[in-house]
Amino acid sequence: MANEEDDPIIQEIDVFLARSLLEKLYLFQYPIRPASMTYDDVTHLSAKIKPKQQKVELEMAIDTLNPNYCRSKGEQIALNVDGTCTDETSTYSSKLMDKQTFCSSQAASNVSRYAAAVYKKGELHLTPLHGILQLRPSFTYLDKADAKHREREAANEGGDSSQDEAEDDVKQITVRFSRPETEQARQRRVQSYEFLQKRQAEEHWVHLHYYGLKDSRSEHERQYLFSQGHGLAENTELIKSPSEYLMMLMPPSVEEENDKPMAPSNVLSMAQLRTLPLADQIKILMKNVKVMPFANLLSLLGPGTDATAVLRCVQQVALLVQGNWVVKSDVLYPKDTSSPHSGVPAEVLCRGRDFVMWKFTQDRWVVRKEVAAVTKLCPEDVKDFLEHMSVARINKGWEFMLPYDEDFVKKHPDIVQRQQMLWMGIQAKLEKVYNLLKEHLTPKKQETQSAHPLLVSGEQRINMAKAKVKQNYGQLEKELQKQKAELKSNDTSAKTDVPNIRIKEEPVSVEEPMDTSAHEGLNNGLVNGLHTAQASMDPVNGHLPGGCIDRVAQELKAFVSSTFKKQFVLTLSELKRLFNLHLASLPPGHTLFSGISDKMLQDMVLDTGCKQILVPFPPQTAASPDELKVYALWEAGDTYDQHRQVLLEIFSKNYRVRRNVIQNQLSQECGEDLNKQEVDRVLKVSFCSLW
Asked: What InterPro entries does the annotation carry (predicted)?
């Protein structure tokens, strides 16, 4: 307190922040020169800058008349650089070193603490600096002198004879083909000094105009160092508490953090992980672990994490395989990357890994040779796929590394059903890409299952039968009470000793429900894509409850109409694939999940104005029956209706037709002379989805 009283405040100065030259003001530090030769004696000839690198190059004239200038030394330097002849390429045209070049380097990487201040009329105006550059002499002219010296020595050695020159014309050339560059090699090349120097040299110079100290333009620019408005609204940065203001002036040093040992780039502590958003946490965990049960994922995310939010995020980066989550292929192999083993692009790697994941949805065992034969990838890539999610067993193959998670499947049937729809879409793509055969689509039965059958004792069978009888008796009793109540409400006089209890109703039609479920080997309690707990909403023997029929028909009709308006011709197989993808995009509990059979789908196609085109495919075709059923929208209401109908009539007679026959038939039926481009347009519009 005594020191503060002895040091009273003499004057209070208002501080203002000028913004006019923000991110434009640089501080140049020139080298020290003799006192007898100040910078007033030096004239700037030219200046240029590379903005991205913050690199400046100044060319200044040297006062050769100054008594401190050594003329003989200047002439010697000019002679060494340019030689005896002078032309436009000469560095010193006056045969005297009359100029010098200065190149800049950054004096400080962080200039946020520095500002230029101007004091005027009791006010202090601050402008933040964008950079501090130190100018040092450039000696590139010495390199030019050395090059001239080597050229003169080469010329004095004497030229070769004409015979030697003729022999030098014929040279052997060795051709080498570079190997595909791996990702690690590319990163090393990008971080090399040679590459950085090349990048810096590629940036173009921007030439600047220099204005002297007393120039009118300099006077005008100096006015921008003053704050244009003194209102508080424009200087909100200075309205801070004393502690905040001191923190802005002297932020905490980061040198201590730099002294700490840095962890590898691919290592992230759990404390750092939990500072990230939930989606990023899940993506990093799945990318590193690759296969994880949902319970383990929740435990890693910490207590209090919302399970619903985790389910929503994990479906974006992983797929469900045997009740466990496996990271998606495009997360491990991003776009524009390649295999470190074979150089195969990421798109091909993703397809091969998806095939391995799909095989594990069908069976717990996968054979490496079968995967390599289908995907046509190198053994190292296939081994990487298998090691991500399985363990090698001697003389058996590769077994999925985690057991089947029945708890998750029972608790989340809607998630399981959605994942099954996604796998059906992936399976359809894999069938087209790899031309999968039936032996690849059907899972193999394990020898261990046949060798070790399930044994049930007689006592266990008796107990199971008793429990089943009790369950059926309870259901029959409920039905009896319900029918008695109905009889009393209707005042019927008929009395029956044994009521007519309807236990099972036989199906009226023999239509087969469309398969929208995954393989039975998953054993996840789903029937036709629905969990058994939803039996009250399921169709009974192919028949929907009365209240759901209209809603299901409306939804199905809307899907069929919108699909055929986009693609006028579709096979039944393609239509079913699109319908399964549509189901996967619907929320759980939607009316369309009640079960749609093939016959219902085909009847709805015919009800929406489409016709079945009986294309005479050859008998030896390898297409499936669903691929042979072709449906087309007869009238779409556009200008191509007549052309489309003519084309459909043509293909109903022959499955393969020449282009000139189509062109002649269209010209006769439509009365128009169509050229080749117009015929191609009609074919593209009408059959783009089929042919």
From this structure: RNA_pol_III_Rpc5, RPC5_C
CA distances from 354 to 304, 308, 370, 430, 435 (A): 33, 26, 14, 8, 15
pLDDT value of position 163: 47
Rounded distance, CA 360 to CA 522, Å? 10
Q: Is 615 helix (H, G, I), strand (E, B) or coil?
A: coil
User: Does 34 share its domain with 136?
Assistant: yes
pLDDT, tens digit, 9 for 90 and up, residues 550-572: 778 888 888 888 888 887 888 88
- Does the residue 82 lie in any domain? no
Q: How far apart are CA 30 and CA 33, in angstroms?
A: 9
Task: Establish if 218 belongs to a structural domain.
Answer: no
Nearest of 406, 427, 257, 407 to residue 359 by alpha carbon: 427
The phi, psi pair for 362, rounded to 5°, reads -95, -25
The answer on 391 and 297 residing in a single domain is: yes
Closest to 298 in 3D by CA, of 388, 385, 401, 412: 412
In a domain, 501, yes or no: no
Count up the domains in the chain and report the number. Answer: 3
Looking at the fold, whether 297 and 202 belong to one and the same domain comes out as no
- In terms of Cα–Cα distance, which of 686, 675, 603, 592 is closest to 648? 686
Specify whether the CB–CB gap between 647 and 661 falls below 8 A.
no
Looking at the fold, whether 311 and 392 belong to one and the same domain comes out as: yes
User: Roughly how many angstroms between the first and final C-alpha of the chain, as a whole number?
Assistant: 94
C-alpha–C-alpha distance, residues 350 and 337, integer Å:
11
Domain termination site, one of 377, 401, 434: 434
Q: What contacts 136, CB < 8 A, 6 or more positions away? A: 31, 102, 103, 104, 105
Encoding tokens for residue 150?
A: 């080597």
> Over 80: is that where the pLDDT of 430 sits?
yes
Alpha-helical segments (H) within 125-182: 140-156, 162-169
- 654 in the same domain as 575: yes
pTM of this prediction? 0.34
Work out the angle between the directed axes of helices 641-651 and 659-670 (0-180°, nearest 10).
130
Smallest CA-to-CA distance from 440 within 375, 523, 516 is with 375
* Residue 146 domain-assigned (yes or no): yes
Rounded-to-integer distance, Cα 568 and Cα 285, Å: 45
Final residue of a structural domain among 400, 434, 468:
434
Exposed/middle/buried for residue 459 (C-beta within 10 Å: 0-12, 13-18, 19+) = exposed
β-bridge mates for residue 50, sequence order: 55
- Residue 571 and residue 660 share a domain: yes
Q: How far apart are CA 176 and CA 342, in angstroms?
A: 19
Q: Are 345 and 333 in contact (CB under 8 A)?
A: no
Buried b (16+ CB within 10 A) or exposed e, 482-507: eeeeeeeeeeeeeeeeeeeeeeeeee
640-645 mean pLDDT: 75
Tokens of 638: 């556009």
Q: Which amino acid is at 648?
A: L
What residue numbers bound the domain in which 610 lies? 546-687
Q: Are 563 and 575 in contact (CB under 8 A)?
A: yes
Indicate whether 571 and 680 sit together in one domain.
Answer: yes
Q: Which amino acid is at 597?
A: S
Cβ-contact 84, 152 below 8 angstroms? no
User: What is the length of the chain?
Assistant: 691
The single-letter code of the amino acid at 285 is L
- Side chain identity at residue 600, one-letter code: M
Q: How would you label 565-577 residue by residue, b for 16+ Cβ within 10 Å and e otherwise?
A: eebbbbbbbbbbb
| Strand spans (E) along 543-602 | 569-571
| pLDDT for 420 | 92
* CA–CA dist 477, 474 (Å, integer): 5
The alpha helices in 435-516, defined as continuous H runs, are: 438-441, 447-451, 458-489
CA pair distance 28, 49, nearest whole angstrom: 13
- Is 198 in the same domain as 288? no
Can you give the pLDDT at residue 443?
Answer: 55
